[in-house]
Design a protein that fits this description.
Length: 596
């Protein structure tokens, strides 16, 4: 029984394939076509999934699409009468989805009738809920989806029991935590799609001085609901148009905050304006107000469901700072967050919704790692390494695993920046040790060095650590696993000086806990680093430079060439730049002085 899940025609297009109830592969289209947040029909992602399952399109039994144009039709019609442009948009979306069979047939060069799969439309939030609960390790759990908007709702919660899910509540347009966060992100001068992360990082620098005002902008409303102060927003009257930038084909959302917000909080920040204490405090207030609403919602859900396990999906589930507070502020003891919590994850959710809800099959799969993307054979990697010439000025060595680990650990401990490419690409937006850039977390200057030489990010944004699961409690105040980097925990005060590079200004870090079973070679590398330095932690940032995370080894090599990375580990090859780096020497000197 082959089920193909496809998230198509809007940002974060992706595909996933489920065979006999088990996930075989999942990948975002952006990793393959190299266009960030790629939309459209994810043809390459679908092809990859079919290849992994060893089938062609004609052999797929079910195709699941996470969009249901008929959902909440009454509400949509009411808006359509008020906003003709909105009606036009809806009509366009319905037409696109109605044509998916033809689009697939054209893309895969088969006759439409050759696609014998049954097509299923799974409502957006039902697919988010399915994307997390059905792959979680829990037999029963409370389940929550919260995002900007999908199928005219922004949130849905349910109780999952075995293969069934019962919806407990939903919040419909225009009330939306995602819209709230995006609107305020824009107000603070960050207009790019996906910039919400930046403001979450910025919030740690401020105090929630404006929280009282923010409680008018968003507030909890009963046990399982929340409301926006609609006068602060424009989307309920003008829609939330997404357009595509010509230059890099990335999505752009129109302005979501209203003049009323400016009247209450002052003028918005110009993106070129420096960040001030006021901006820090606005970001802190915005994050604090979100957390108040989420805590109320989580507690409402705990009460209504009677569960102690919680599954999260939807873009709001990427708020790792809020997620880190679940354990202290709610009765929930176990939390699973889908690694592709955003709309890419809908492809997984739609496929599992068909398997369990439509076909009534039992559960037998747990997503205990995130490595569902393309992997490359030693031969393919060797071909890329063979293309390295004298102009690259690198030393190349091929090493056995134990030597590879020791050598890489030594490079990290010596302050070098290491590109680390192993196994299958990660599913979801985080690099989790297969397509990662690694560095020494003990060096306070490492964040600036990484920014200067490779990442070119805003200086206020933190870098994240990976740590062996076993050592989590030694360095962090919480030990609940965070295998997908979706929780921020306080670093133990006595350990903050030991890992200054990934410790954020508020003393927390957005950690990845690494278990031996989920990623054996990465876990062993962390152990090797620990043996050398006493700290089984590396600073882990995604392997890219203003582009989607590298997927193919050739892209890793090109990123290595373009940036000032010191070492590239491709499978069991180590490529080390011959020229020394001033930064590296400066860092080594400073570190040696500190050690003495
Ligand atoms: Fe969504």
């Amino acid at each position: 029984m082959i089920i193909l899940g496809i998230n198509a025609y809007h940002a974060n297009a992706a595909a996933a394939i489920v065979a006999d109830g088990r996930l075989i592969a999942a990948v975002e289209e952006e990793r393959l076509n190299r266009i960030k947040y790629a939309a459209g029909l994810p043809v390459r992602a679908i092809q990859f999934c079919l290849d992994q399952a060893g089938v062609n399109l004609a052999q797929v039994d079910h195709i699941a699409v996470p969009r249901d144009p008929w959902a909440r039709l009454g509400t949509k019609l009411r808006y359509a009468i008020r906003m003709p442009r909105f009606a036009l948009d809806r009509a366009r979306v319905m037409k696109r989805f109605a044509g998916i069979r033809q689009d697939l047939a054209a893309a895969f060069q088969v006759a439409p009738d050759d696609i014998r799969a049954r097509f299923h439309r799974i409502e957006h939030h039902a697919a988010h809920l399915a994307s997390t609960y059905y792959v979680s390790p829990f037999d029963r759990a409370a389940v929550l989806s919260a995002d900007g908007l999908g199928d005219f709702a922004s949130s849905m919660c349910a109780i999952g029991e075995g293969p069934r899910m019962r919806v407990l509540g939903e919040v419909t347009f225009p009330h939306s935590l995602g819209m709230y966060y995006t609107a305020l992100t824009q107000y603070l001068g960050f207009w790019k799609f996906g910039d919400e992360y930046k403001v979450m990082g910025l919030a740690a620098y401020g105090q929630p001085e404006f929280l009282d005002e923010f409680r008018h902008i968003v507030r909890a409303d009963g046990l399982l609901s929340f409301r926006l102060g609609l006068e602060y927003f424009t989307h309920q009257s003008q829609g939330a148009d997404m357009t595509w930038r010509e230059a890099d084909r990335t999505p752009v959302l129109g302005q979501l905050f209203s003049p009323h917000l400016e009247k209450r909080l002052g003028p918005p920040r110009d993106p070129r304006e420096p960040l001030t204490e006021r901006h820090h405090n606005l970001a802190a207030s915005m994050q604090a107000a979100l957390e108040e609403v989420l805590v109320a919602y989580w507690n409402g859900l705990a009460k209504q469901s009677g569960q102690r396990a919680l599954c999260l999906a939807g873009g709001v589930a990427f708020n790792c700072v809020a997620n880190g507070k679940i354990f202290d502020s709610t009765p929930f003891e176990h939390v699973f967050v889908q690694p592709a919590a955003g709309d890419a994850g809908l492809s997984v959710g739609a496929a599992f919704a068909v398997h369990h809800q439509t076909l009534g099959r039992p559960r037998e799969f747990v997503m205990d790692h995130a490595y569902w993307g393309p992997r490359f054979s030693p031969n393919e990697i060797r071909k890329v390494v063979d293309s390295v010439g004298s102009a690259d000025e690198v030393d190349v060595a091929q090493l056995e695993e134990s030597e590879l680990l020791e050598t890489t650990a030594h490079h990290i401990a010596a302050g070098k920046i290491v590109g680390w490419f192993q196994g299958a690409a990660e599913w979801g937006p985080r690099a989790l040790g297969n397509r990662s850039i690694l560095a020494d977390p003990r060096r306070p200057e490492m964040k600036d060095i990484l920014n200067r030489r490779i990442k070119h990010r805003e200086t206020f944004r933190p870098f994240a650590p990976s740590i062996t699961e076993e050592a989590t409690g030694e360095f962090f105040e919480k030990t609940h696993p965070s295998p997908f980097m979706t929780f921020a925990y306080p670093v133990r005060p006595e350990k903050r000086a030991a890992i200054p590079a990934p410790t954020h200004v508020d003393g927390t870090a957005r950690l990845q806990t690494v278990s031996r079973s989920a990623n054996p070679i990465y876990w062993k590398l962390l152990r090797a680093v620990g043996r050398l330095t006493g700290v089984p932690i590396v600073l882990n940032t995604s392997f890219n430079d203003n582009e989607p995370i590298v997927c193919h080894p050739q892209e890793a090599l090109e990123c290595f060439r373009r940036t000032q990375m010191d070492v590239l580990v491709l499978g069991n090859f180590v490529l080390e730049r011959k020229s020394s780096s001033a930064d590296r020497e400066e860092s080594a000197d400073r570190f040696a002085r500190r050690e003495n």
